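Workshop exercise sheet. Pairs work together: one partner reads the sequence aloud, the other fills in the structure field after running the prediction. Swap roles for the next sheet.
Pair: D.N. / O.F.
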Amino acid sequence: MSSSPHPALRLGLDVALSALKAAAEPTRLRLLALLAEGELTVSDMTDILGQSQPRISRHLKLLVEAGLVERHREGAWAFFRLSDGAGHDAALRAALSRLDPADPALRRDRERLTEVRAAHQQAAARYFSANAERWDGVRGLHVSEAAVERAILAAVGDVRIETALDLGTGTGRMLELLSPRVGRAIGVDANRDMLALARANLARAGVTNAQIRQGDIFAPPVETSAFDLVVVHQVLHFLDDPARAVREAARALRPGGRLLIVDFAPHGIEELRERHAHRRLGFSSEAIAGWLAACGLDLVAHSNLPPPDGDGDKLTVSLWLARDPRIVSDALPSSSNLEVA
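Structure field:
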């Protein structure tokens, strides 16, 4: 018995022809294969394919017009990703999955993608190393850390947390802040200088229930379904693929566990890219909610902490609290400072 695609996945003749024509060109097909790996800028794709920026931009314009690719502007940068519109996403990814990964051109593109992403990570690592001793001072340029920490504690609540994970632990401040409420905690960071600073800070604060591990946030050295609480504090804006980091955080959660994301709301301060290695200029609630839903998590609360009135040099900090719904818990811990989503 033959099966028909779900109505939401069917494409009209004109839409299908437009999409097929747009994809039926070697460079554009290579661009689609790259974007299947995650969001990229025009500059990234220019470096990977070795073609001029005007040429890459023309190809991307055709792909956007055909509905195969979406464009998202952040300040002076634009990020491109595969469309997740009705019908396009499933059909396009199914077609791309049939490409031979051993094809020489596609293999070279993936190798160059790895190199480009490594270069971004190295730039961020150099920034972290240069700022390791004054990292909390850099954060102090933004909304009050004291206010953020009060909001974090309110979101976490007074319920005892047996196991916690801090991804991108940096100075270890989150481990120190949460230590009275946690049985056992692990902080993961890729940068050795930051790890040394975190260990020194925890020792000075007398924190004995936390350990530090070196590891990649995209492949943290932790077990699946092992933590009651995962915190991702001021990390996502440094990453090429923040959605992937959210997936890893969700992987680490136990059923009923909670994920707390703290980062900036959308802004337009380009200087943060140039001087502080930021890859993303904040995140909308819609973007975060979409990533959480894709991981099977429920967004249960969200809050914004704006800077003082008239202080244009500071940024709004946002908190998102999500829960793994695989079990039903009695009640959420107190989140009086958060708005119910």
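Discussion prompt: The first helix runs from residue 13 to 23. What would you look at next?
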